[in-house]
Specification:
alpha+beta, seven-stranded antiparallel beta sheet, 6 helices
Length: about 240
């Protein structure tokens, strides 16, 4: 008990050692694994479901998140034929979605389409994409419009998010991911009470008031991943 309670007091050299151990931990398929898939609960639910149903080890460690897109593509490719032949309609859709969403690594992706104005949506998942032997780029818009209601005379909650999502890989060694979005929202009462109590918007940083009981904030997330050696992956974000 005392050792556990005292862990939080480690500083200086001890903290640096912990950080180095985390950064230098070798994830599965560290080399050329691509950008990490964002920690979306619905997306990772699919990955957990199919990894459990596979009956053998996944190409990634399930307690080490987020997963690299190369590993996700390998899981999708390994299950693709069996699910397309014997799976339900939902399984066939899901496994094709996972392959298409990681098409730069998957052998089963079906993303070719007639481009819009020659340059846009040349592949199904991306507004704009570039793929060469040494460079890979994916750029997509983000739009989230949500509205709801609460009982009584409470103002109706809503959310309005607009932004861009980008991921890229350079020479199969350096990968990066960025998500940028502008948001206006009016949250349900229990969230508004927490904002008033704590002075923060859950999960966000800088914010300001917006109209009647609303908030306005900018979301910026990203990471860079680098593979100096086959068994070493460095990440910062």
């Amino acid at each position: 008990m005392n050792r556990i309670a005292g862990f939080g007091r480690y500083t200086g050299t001890g903290a640096l050692l912990v950080c180095l151990l985390v950064l230098l931990s070798p994830p599965a398929y560290a080399q050329a694994q691509g950008a990490m898939a964002p920690l979306d609960p619905y997306y990772y639910h699919l990955l957990d479901r199919y990894e459990i149903g596979r009956g053998s080890f996944a190409p990634y460690h399930t307690s080490h998140r987020p997963y690299g897109r190369l590993a996700i593509a390998r899981l999708a490719d390994a299950l693709y034929d069996s699910l397309q032949q014997q799976g339900s309609a939902a399984d066939r859709f899901n496994i094709q979605f996972l392959a298409n969403d990681n098409w730069e690594w998957s052998q089963k992706a079906q993303v070719a389409r007639n481009p819009l104005l020659k340059y846009f949506y040349r592949t199904t998942p991306d507004l704009f994409s570039v793929q060469t032997p040494d460079f890979d780029l994916h750029l997509s818009p983000v739009l989230w419009l949500q509205a709801g209601s609460e009982g009584g005379d409470r103002p109706k909650p809503y959310r309005n998010t607009r932004g861009l999502e980008l991921r890229a890989t350079i020479e199969q060694k350096v990968s990066l991911y960025a998500f940028l979005a502008e948001n206006q929202a009016r949250y349900p009462l229990y969230v508004r009470e927490r904002i008033a109590e704590r002075g923060v918007v859950p999960g966000e940083a800088f914010w300001k008031r917006f109209k009647e009981q609303g908030v306005d904030y900018f979301t910026a997330r990203g990471h860079v991943s680098f593979n100096p050696l086959k068994s070493i992956n460095l990440q910062v974000g």
